[in-house]
Structures are given as C-alpha cells and as structure tokens.
Amino acid sequence: MRSLSFSPFLVLLGLVVYAQAAVKYLGVALSGGDWGCDIDGSCPLSTAALPLTELGHADGGGQMKHFVEDDGVNMFRLPTTWQFLINNEDEVSDEFDETNLGRYDQFVQACLVTGAYCMIDIHNFARFNGGIVGQGGPSDDMFVTIWSTLAKKYADEPNIVFEITNEPHDLDITKWAATCQKVVTGIRNAGAKTQMILLPGTNFDSAATLISTGSADALLAITNPDGTTDGLYLDIHKYLDNNNSGQYAECTTDNVGNFTMLATYLRGKKRQGLISETGASSDSSCVTDYCAQNTFINENDDVYIGYVTWAAGQFDETYVLSQTPIQQPDGSWTDNALFTECVLAPYQKAGGAKPSPLPSTASSSKKTTATQTKTKTSTKTSATAAAESSSSDAGDAGAKGGSLAASTSTTASAPASTNGAGVARAVHVLKNLAVAAVVGAALF
Ligand SMILES: *[C@@H]1O[C@H](CO)[C@@H](O)[C@H](O)[C@H]1NC(C)=O
Ligand SMILES: *[C@@H]1O[C@H](CO)[C@@H](O)[C@H](O)[C@H]1NC(C)=O
After folding, report:
1. Per the record, where are the segments of Low complexity compositional bias (predicted)?
2. What's the gap between Cα 155 and its chain centre?
3. The predicted structure's pLDDT at residue 353
4. What is the DSSP letter of 416?
C-alpha cells in the first residue's frame, strides 16, 4: 500500500513542477527606431521613428504599460541605430548627439517605469554604412566607446539589457567574437556589472546556424573581467516562414527541430540563451506553428530564459507580423489575436508570471495613458511605413519588409480568454498542491 500511494505523490509533485515551467522573460519588440535600416548597416535618420507620442509617433509608452499591466509581459526590446545616436548618417563617430540620446533615453525611461527589462538594441547588423565593425569598418575602439557610454549612463539600472547589435552577417566570426569581448569588458568596466548582455552570432543570429557557423562556440568563450560568464547569454533569432526572413505570411516550420538542437548544445555547455527576435503572421499555419514553437521554448526554460516577439511599436495592424495592440475609444487595449494565443498563452499555461499593475507612484510620475492618447497622431500611413521599413530586419535569408504593403493580416481564430486560462491553471496547481499535501500527510 505504501508504495502504491507513494508513486502518485511523486506524479503529483511532478505535475506541480511541470505546471510552473515557464521562461523568465516574456518580451515584445517596440520597433520604429530601426525603421529604414538596411542589412549593410545604413540607417537613415529621416525614417527612424521611436514610438513615443511625445516624439510625434505611436504610443509605445502606452503599449508597454498595457503589456505589463494587462498581460504580464516583462521585457521590451527597444531598437535604435548608431546613426541616430550620433545624429549623423554619413560619417561614423563615437560622439553622441545629446538631443537624440535624450530622445532615446525618453523611450528607455518609458520602458523602465513599467518595471520591465529594457533591451538596448543597436540595430546595425554589426556595421555602419557598409563597413563591418572591427573588420574594415568602424574600429573596435569606437564601438566599445559607444557601448561604454551607454553602460555608464545605465550602470545603476539593473533592468537594462545590452544587445550588442542586431543580426551580424557575412563576417569573420572569430574577429567578431573578439570585438564582442572588448564590448563586454567595456560595459562591465563602465559600471554595468550585473546587467544581462546578449551575444549575437553571424548569419543573422539564426538559431539554425549558431552552432554550425562557430558563432556559439566563439561567443560563449567570452568572459567578464572577473573571469565569470555571469549575465552573458547567447542571443538567438528565428522566423518560421520558408526562407526564415519573416517576410512570408505562411509559416512552414515550428522550429522545434532547431530549438531542440540548440537546447542540447546549451545544456552540454551549461549555458543559456535568449530568443530576442521571433515572429509570425496571423495566418492559420502560424497559429499552429508559432504556438508550438513558444510552447516548446517554455518547456525548455532551463536553457531558454525568454523570448521576444516581433513586433509592436510603430507598426500598425496591417504589418504582416504585427503584434501591436489596438487602443479602444475607452482607453483600453485589445491585443493582437496571435499574440494572445501563441505568445502569451503558452507562457501563462506554463505558469508564467501574472500581470502586475504598476504601483500608483510609478504611474503618477509619468503622463497618464489617457493624456497620451489624446495627443496621439499617426504620422505615417501603413503604406509609407512599409516602404520605409523595407529591408529592415532581415532574417537569415534576406531582408524582410519588402512585401509588407501587400500583406494582409487575417485574423486568428478567437483565442480563449488567457486570464481565464491563467486562473484555471492557478486553481489546478493549488488543487495539485492540496492533493499532494493530503497524500503526503497520509504517508508520514
Ligand atoms: C533548422 O531550420 C532550417 C530552416 O531555417 C531547416 O532547413 C533545418 O532543417 C532545421 N534544422 C533542424 C535540425 O531541424
Ligand atoms: C526570402 O523571401 C522574400 C520574400 O519573397 C524575398 O524578398 C527574399 O529575397 C528571399 N530571400 C532569399 C535569399 O531567398
């Protein structure tokens, strides 16, 4: 009898543990500051549009507040460009333009005030106007100065995350890893001693090739000045369409094969990675595949610390990969259906953190959402937006964005209420705990 009652006890404990396996960080990219960037690292100033109403663009501040308070999102990726930070699209330098740095800081502060983690993404493909950093283009020293300056500015903000660049490609990975080592040393020595740093590999940081290109081996050899690897994570990107570019509406893979391969590798190395860019359209093929991918990532939370979906911010709902919530006349926000069903639900079903309303002190230090809404002006039609973002954010196989204007987003089937699912899951866990306690008590 004793052994019979003992095994259900273990099974129940297992259920409780399984129910709580979720990634630590659930994120959304707030695109806009990267608009117009080409994969050669040319990023025009005229198309950069940081999504903040105060800057005349979309209400990224309101979006982030909504995502945190209503959904439990706890990380935002905040793309900007080298050209914007120095306010010069022709000539590279490491001297910041105070006005533009101030604008970017406004955006970062709108993120920090929500309590979420805020990822600085210099969206330049390891380049400036065609020149590869440390490989014929801008010098390593210049790039290190850019990062050290930002690290010094945010040294006392534990929630800042440094993503060294977006999607390196067509470069010497050994040299690039040496550049990244200098950047890590620079960031730490500037006082940002504990913050997360994401290390991006070549071939557009693709999960499919991080191992085969030697990127993962080279990048995970990077250390902090004290010799540890604390806070250093492999940066990972992956799309689900047929050429991994994020340009097609149809999904052709759930990426479980690639994420299995990479998980095994990371486990062997006793290291972890963060999927800082992945995304899908609302096509029915993606409802299947994106849900499957994100469920798998949550199940492997020992090696994958989080995932960040692409993208909200300046994109409107006509963008093929739109995750932008829509604000209703009463001020409330309605999430994109794919976001609810395939980004949020897998995380919540796995026991991810519940939404956390901001403390009133935090909200009152900012303009209220309602005020921001009234001043909201959309300066771009979606067609212009699509044209401007052409070639931004290439995946493995080339630029995505060219087909944005032509795309139409079909609506995903109505998602189950995630709040309901969350509550049901919590009740389920409590019930398991109670049963486990009763069984346990009976044993001893
Ligand atoms: C990884 O993804 C690529 C497509 O990006 C695919 O061709 C390849 O077969 C996948 N690898 C595994 C191990 O599933
Ligand atoms: C991937 O697909 C997009 C959309 O058709 C296309 O523009 C791009 O050139 C493709 N890339 C490659 C390398 O096939």
Report:
1. 360-418
2. 21
3. 86
4. P
What confidence tens digit (pLDDT) does each residue in 108-140 have?
A: 999 999 999 999 999 999 999 999 999 999 999
Helix (H, G, I), strand (E, B) or coil at 40: coil
Pocket test for ligand 2, best of 38, 243, 403 (most atoms within 8 A of CB): 243
Token output for 77: 């990726």
Reported as a single tens digit per residue, the pLDDT across 244-275 is 989 999 999 999 999 999 999 999 999 999 99
Contacts of 19 (CB under 8 A, 6+ apart): 350, 351, 425, 428, 429, 432
- Measured from CB, residues less than 6 Å from any atom of ligand 2 are 243, 245, 247-248, 397-398, 402-403
Let me know: does 86 contact 45? Beta carbons within 8 Å.
no
* Residue among 117, 132, 435, 403 at smallest CA distance from 242: 403
How confident is the model over 431-442, as pLDDT tens digits? 333 333 433 343
Residue for token digits 């403390």? 359
pLDDT value, residue 302: 98
CA angle 318, 70, 22 (to 5 degrees): 95
DSSP 175: H
Q: CA-to-CA distance for 273 and 30, rounded, in angstroms? A: 21
Pairing, β 127-128 against β 25-31: unpaired
Q: Cβ(321)–Cβ(279) under 8 Å?
A: yes
Contacts of 54 (CB under 8 A, 6+ apart): 61, 106, 372
**Would the CB of 387 count as within 6 Å of ligand 1?**
no
Tokens of 27: 């994120």
> From CA 329, how far away is CA 292, in angstroms rounded?
34
CATH class of 25-416: alpha beta
Ligand 1 centroid, distance to 238 Cα (angstroms): 10
Q: Name 198's Cβ contacts closer than 8 Å, sequence gap at least 6.
A: 119, 161, 162, 163, 164, 233, 234, 235, 274, 276
Q: Full-prediction pTM beyond 0.85? A: no
Please check whether residue 242 is in contact with residue 278, taking contact to mean a CB–CB distance below 8 angstroms: no
Ligand 1 within 6 A of CB of 262: no
The token pair that represents 142 in the structure block: 């210049």
Band of residue 358 on the pLDDT scale cut at 50, 70, 90: low
**CA dist., res. 428 & res. 275, Å (int):** 29
Mean of per-residue pLDDT scores for the chain:
83
pLDDT at 371: 32
